[in-house]
Amino acid sequence: MGRTVIRGGLVVTAAEEVEADVLVEDERVAALALRGTETAESWARGDAAVIDAAGHYVIPGGVDAHTHMEMPFGGTQSADTFETGTRAAAWGGTTTIVDFAIQSPGQSVRAGVDTWMAKADGTCAIDYAFHAILSDVNESSLKEMDVLVDEGVTSFKLFMAYPGVFYSDDGRILRAMQRGAANGALTMMHAENGIAIDVLVEQALAEGRTDPRHHGEVRKALLESEATHRAIQLARVAGAPLYVVHVSAGEAVEELARARDKGLNVFGETCPQYLFLSTDNLAEPGFEGAKYVCSTPLRPREHQELLWRALRTNDLSVVSTDHCPFCFTGQKDLGVGDFSKIPNGMPGVENRMDLLHQAVVDGHISRRRWIEIACATPARMFGLHPRKGTVAPGADADIVVYDPRAEQVISAETHHMNVDYSAYEGRRVTGRARTVLSRGRVVVDDGTYLGEAGHGRYVPRSTCQYLV
Predict the structure, then answer these.
(1) How far, in Å, are 62, 95, 260, 337, 437 from residue 19 at the CA level?
(2) What pTM, to 2 d.p., does this model score?
(3) pLDDT tens across 6-44, in order?
(4) How far apart, in Å, do the first and last CA atoms of the chain sit?
(5) Which of 432, 437, 434 is nearest to 446 (CA)?
(6) CA triple 430-431-433, angle to 5 deg
(7) Which residues contact 398 (CB under 8 A, 6 or more apart)?
(8) How far is CA 45 from the centre of its chain?
(9) Using an 8 Å Cβ cutoff, are 100 and 131 in contact?
(10) Whole-angstrom Cα distance, residue 356 to residue 375?
(11) Cα torsion for 68, 74, 75, 77, to the nearest 10°?
(12) Helices 250-261 & 302-313 angle (0-180, nearest 10)
């Protein structure tokens, strides 16, 4: 790939904003030099390819630490393959994903990791890594955790929801957390009281409440906050760090804030759907609300400001997408007449960076906080820093030249995700990734896709670098 100079832009990282040129050699950032210095000018006079970033931000590629490509769920599987999903991510300025390898009950954790490795191998447009989902916590799978941590799979997700599918009881959760405390793994938790939710689902259906909006009504915010509280206490008993995924309710944020005020290694993630959408979408007429069925569910609009505030105070530390798309026709409609059969999940891997930049425009967060929650902190949380999440010497040259003034309308007609609707259809946003580099290679440039399947590499991870 040789040498490339990204010239004339404002470099924005989680730590600073500086008018500097960036020298890329092969796949890494070689150096930064203040604009107009002799060093920067010498780069431009040399034989390097020059990318003009005047009037643009130069930011790290996004790190989306929560995606589900080719995930089996509810008798179908998520619509994006690793090829289509990572290509869409690149279009949106995300250059690394961390997906989930699923252990099937009765099988080894290794078998799940191997299966997902095979799905991704040779197909990804950008770099990728894996968490492991523990569906069957026993002595064998606990021993496998030790080996996988050594191999770079350093985070393990457990579920308090979905009895009969992914659910683990408190005893199994405690055992997994204790193992994580010993081997350095980070425990990720889907915190909803699935046993109680199943009772409410059964009662709602028996009463004829079958529309998509009832999905949100039965998955109550109190059952998210109760599970979040319980997960925190189990983590305290185990002495283990805890990362709570897709936090949607203000009551759950309160539990996280209390734990963090105690100085505990407890972290929260939220997603764009909870920041920009609400139960109003679930209640759209006809069956339209099915497009917005995900778990945890969308909440009433008043929760949004609580989430934004928590992002500003770092009681929520990461924004990921939980990208798990199902087509409206042929997949979501499996739940016509029974909301409990609607596949849970929404598309979003392509939209995250732009929606969060809109949050900068709207005054919810600062530019540096945008990069912190979308790039730097997920990289540190999941052992990818300093290779990912920053623009600094030695880092992978995952760089986005971002146009902060470009206006666009989000639509299924123009997005690149393999799904037949957009959760943000018709929403106007300001900002767009103009040029996207993955390890020094331009994969998107000014509306043209230049990447290819197989460019993306698997990245083994170290343990969490974000502990207090």
Answers:
(1) 20, 23, 35, 56, 19
(2) 0.98
(3) 999 999 999 999 999 999 999 999 999 999 999 999 999
(4) 39
(5) 434
(6) 155
(7) 60, 61, 95, 96, 126, 127, 388, 437, 438, 439
(8) 40
(9) yes
(10) 11
(11) -10
(12) 20
